Amino acid sequence: MIVCVAVVGHQSFTEADDALKLHHIVHCSLDVVDERVNNPKKSGPTLNETFLGLLYPTENYKVYGYLTNTKVKFILVTTDLDVRDVDVRNFFRRFHAAYVDAVSNPFHVPGKKITSRTFAERVSNIVKSFGLSST
Amino acid sequence: MGREVSESCIDSLLTEMVSSYCNHFYANKPELAARRIEAIGYQVGHQLSERYTMERPRFSDHLEAIKFICKDFWSELFKKQIDNLKTNHRGTFVLQDNRFRWLARMSLDPTADDAVPQDPADFAESKAAQAMSMYLYFPCGIIRGALSNLGIPCAVSADISNLPACSFVVRIKA
To answer: What superfamily does domain B7-172 belong to in CATH?
Structure first.
């Protein structure tokens, strides 16, 4: 079950800040799913070679990261223990498409929080269908 | 991908945008109008680059990003690629489009009092060139917005001394 999905802009964080930021992000993130606390990260696929660096390790959760060409990071936190790589990639692909549409809104100010309800609904749908394909 | 609009709508929109800003909002203040139009282009380029880099692997260096602008980005916008790319290997790139789509239908009125000078050196100074250059702030802004979203701050200017070819000069900020 996905507990949290977050979009992070292009400032870069140091290792130590990451956990705190992630907490912060978790608490302020999209109104999509309930949030709990942090997690161990089980590396994140990005569009290209490198995985995102190790996030703060914790017991029950998995955190996936995705980095776009424009230095925007998507963070996915899940409690599923056996998540297939292809599912996560699929998830991020659809999420990226929704993000691009939300950002193309002329009333959206780059760098500020996305407030579009359509975006929230689309993400909600993507999240809901995440578990289904992995059975 | 997504919905489409006819090209004549885009042409009309651009014409009206330049006309509104030059003659209405910032009448007699062409520098302000130019800056505003360029800023609109910047936002558009920013958003378009987000969309067109979606499925691609990340760029390893500036040259890759510029090549992306010349090929895929330009194809998405203008259905053709940049015809010629030059660089001085020190942060300046010249992107030449031999028949820039948004200038393709512009005529230079030969019956006007100050007729269009044929000599390129004079042309650059003429009012015709100045009028035409207002239409180039928007594409310059688009290029600047796209590159800056890819992490490359730069300044972009246009050069129309060689119509119908149009060159965009990109200077990457150190």
So the answer is: Trafficking protein particle complex subunit 3 (3.30.1380.20)
